[in-house]
Design goal:
The protein is an alpha/beta fold and about 325 residues long. About 55% of the residues lie in helices and about 15% in strands. It is elongated, with a radius of gyration of 26 Å. The structure holds uridine-5'-diphosphate (UDP) and magnesium ion (MG). Magnesium ion (MG) binds near residues 108, 112 and 214.
Length: about 325
């Protein structure tokens, strides 16, 4: 008599979906047809029940219409339409929140993450791993500037962060439901996914692959965005930039004390010496610079604390297509 229907529906669907693919899409209209063609052929071969959740991240072209067309053709393709562009990391989080599969696989919709690798990911998952990431074997397709900056970023963050953050892995990976649930417990707004994946731990492994060029369209990253991405990563996984100033300050004070002693002795022995304008200027400018940098670093952290404290929802959904149960935002 007391059978709550929606709950029943939900549990039956939860049981039946084995794989959830999550694809964030921002102006990817030319890639979508080909993406589904390849995804569906791989998933059909695997013979597992699946859902493909596409998150339309405020695209300005006809990505949404295209996605809905595919949803009508194949109901396993589901669409979450965000109210505006929220950025890839947030779109991914939205898609993961909507997913119900026993394993979740985030994938780029520009076909830089070859769908055929899903088979290998699933094999490792069946062997008992909770996180199987796809690691780029080479970055040959990228220019040396991108390569060296990426490399130094990973070296710096590797030194600073207490959890080791793996190099050359994007967001293309397989996550067991346990890991997804762990990720959902992390309330932070700033989603530096690579770091979060590393932070949650679990049984992890990886496979290697060569990353192809994007199929069509252009990348949405530029160096300014990458720089901010790097700052997000460092500030959310390390307090070193805040702490280092204590040591720099201490060092400068010690040197200043020695210098003061030296001046004192010199004045005692040789009397007052007028010139000294240059060294004074250098000291003032140098220390002024250091103080401004320190303030800037504190500002970076303070700004992020402010973002978190405001407690706004991570994203807003305008509408969704293909979700039978009442999946709501868990943010
Ligand atoms: N993306 C998104 N929102 C954005 C920017 C990108 O959902 O604001 C998606 C994009 O559609 C693609 C993935 O994130 O599926 C990776 O984007 P992109 O190819 O531009 O990045 P790159 O591969 O150059 O790192
Ligand atoms: Mg890409």
């Amino acid at each position: 008599m007391l059978l709550p229907m929606p709950l029943d529906l939900k549990t039956s669907e939860e049981k039946s979906t084995e794989i959830s693919i999550v694809a964030p899409c921002y102006n990817e209209e030319p890639n979508i047809d080909y993406l589904f063609e390849r995804l569906e052929s791989v998933l059909d071969r695997l013979n597992l029940s699946y859902e493909i959740i596409c998150v339309n991240d405020g695209s300005r072209d006809n990505t949404l219409e295209c996605l809905i067309r595919h949803h009508v053709r194949n109901p396993a393709i589901k669409v979450v339409n965000l109210s505006r562009n929220f950025g890839k990391e947030v779109a991914l989080t939205a898609g993961i929140n909507y997913s119900r599969g026993a394993a979740v696989i985030p994938i780029d919709s520009d076909l830089q993450d070859p769908p055929e690798l899903i088979e290998e990911l699933v094999v490792k998952w069946k062997e008992g791993y909770d996180v199987v990431s796809a690691r780029r074997r080479s970055r040959n397709e990228e220019g040396w500037l991108k390569k060296t900056t990426a490399k130094s970023f990973y070296r710096i963050i590797g030194r600073m962060s207490r959890v080791p953050i793996p190099q050359d892995t994007g967001d293309f990976r397989l996550l067991d439901r346990r890991v997804v649930e762990a990720l959902e417990k992390l309330p932070e707004r700033n989603r530096f996914m690579k770091g979060l994946f590393a932070w949650v731990g679990f049984k992890q492994t990886y496979i290697l692959y060569d990353r192809p060029q994007r199929y069509k369209g252009t990348t949405k990253w530029n160096y300014w965005k990458l720089w901010n991405f790097a700052l997000d990563g460092i500030t959310s996984f390390s307090l070193a930039p805040l702490k280092i100033w204590t040591y720099i300050g201490l060092f400068i004070s010690c040197v200043a004390l020695l210098y003061a002693l030296f001046i004192f002795m010199r004045t005692l022995i040789f009397g007052i010496d007028f010139p000294g304008y240059a060294s004074l200027m250098v000291a003032i400018l140098f220390l002024g610079g250091i103080q401004l940098i320190t303030l800037g670093v504190i500002g970076e952290y303070l700004g992020r604390v402010y973002e978190e404290v405001k407690g706004r929802p991570l994203y807003l959904v305008r509408d969704s297509y293909g979700f039978t149960d009442n999946r709501t935002d868990k943010t």
